[in-house]
Write a structure and sequence with these properties.
With about 170 residues, the protein is mainly alpha-helical. It folds into 2 domains: about 100 residues, Winged helix-like DNA-binding domain superfamily/Winged helix DNA-binding domain (Arc Repressor Mutant, subunit A), CATH 1.10.10; about 40 residues. Helix content is about 60%, strand content about 5%. It is built from 7 helices and 2 strands. Strands 1-2 form a two-stranded antiparallel sheet. The longest helix is centred in the middle third of the chain and has 22 residues. The chain is globular, with a radius of gyration of 19 Å.
Length: about 170
């Protein structure tokens, strides 16, 4: 087995375990009751309102599945259908205030779990990990442009208060 193949096998085994360890099911997660499809939709709607056709394409779902998922999320009060700002005949789908708040609460819990895990690494190791994972996302997803990934990551930052990830200095 060549080195890259061996590393790929290791990565395939390690990444899911690392993600499960960091972001395991937690009953304190305000969105723990959502299905994977519902959660993917809520996270996608975090950035902006979408029309159903584009949302279906982005999530690789049928328009019918998007419609059903939106209906369920609407019944839960997490999303809303709104008139499009440019064309009142078109309805867009966006997070409700409650949906946005619950998503922020969820992210705060998950960021805290990641903070605890990252606190065991040096600053250099943390930066290296983030840089390498970012490169894997950019190199592995032909739809992701480096600047778009940076913009997406920067957009996520304001959702939680800034955290000081440096270990406390001893006096």
């Amino acid at each position: 087995m060549d080195d890259i193949l061996q590393d790929a096998v290791l990565l395939e085994a390690i990444l899911p375990r690392a993600l499960r360890s960091l972001f395991r099911h937690d009953t304190s997660d305000p969105l723990a009751h959502l299905t994977v499809a519902q959660l993917r939709m809520v996270r996608t709607l975090r950035a902006k309102d979408w029309n159903a056709v584009d949302l279906a394409k982005d999530l690789a779902m049928t328009e019918s599945a998007v419609s059903q998922t939106v209906k369920r999320l609407e019944e839960m009060g997490l999303v809303e259908r709104r008139p499009d700002l440019h064309d009142r005949r078109v309805r867009t789908i966006g997070l409700s205030q409650i949906g946005a708040q619950l998503l922020r609460e969820r992210q705060t819990l998950r960021v805290e779990r990641a903070r605890v895990a990252l606190s065991k690494l040096s600053r250099l190791d943390r930066q290296t990990l983030i840089d390498l994972l970012s490169r894997l996302v950019i190199d592995g997803d032909s739809d992701v442009e480096p600047l778009a990934l940076v913009a997406e990551l920067e957009q996520a930052l304001p959702l939680v208060p800034p955290l000081n990830l440096d270990p406390p200095k001893s006096r």
